[in-house]
Design goal:
125 residues; alpha/beta; single chain; globular; 5 helices
Length: 125
């Protein structure tokens, strides 16, 4: 059964589609952020520290807000080392000025040898 995300704003619907396709979640956000709310919704499957190649990990990163937290690159690296697949924002949403964290995530995934095989889906070739 998919995780039901709390409605935090106009982008929850797109995030819910990502959550529906994922079995794990990586995201670190300040207390009032959607990222933090999503981590709470995913419970034990959020930032769990253990990943396999069969995992599909929904990644959320905090945008340009006061008190924002950078993505948890150590947690992302653990999932990369396991060859997990990732679901992120697509290029159009990443390019919005606010989405600095989403751009950080995509740059990190590229540095780990990942590519966006189709919009939102990252895997190693």
């Amino acid at each position: 059964m998919p995780v039901i995300l709390p409605v935090t704003g106009p982008y929850t619907a797109k995030d819910q589609r990502k959550a529906n396709a994922a079995n794990k979640f990586i995201g670190r956000g300040s207390a009032r952020s959607s990222t933090n709310a999503y981590a709470i919704a995913f419970g034990a499957a959020a930032n769990c520290g253990e990943y396999t190649r069969d995992d599909v990990v929904f990644v959320s990163a905090e945008g340009a807000r006061s008190g924002r937290l950078d993505p948890d690159f150590d947690e992302l690296k653990r999932a990369c080392d396991a060859n997990a697949r990732f679901i992120t924002d697509d290029a159009a949403n990443r390019s919005r000025a606010y989405n600095v964290g989403e751009r950080q995530v995509s740059e990190f995934l590229r540095s780990q040898g990942y590519r966006e095989s189709r919009p939102c889906i990252w895997s190693k070739p």
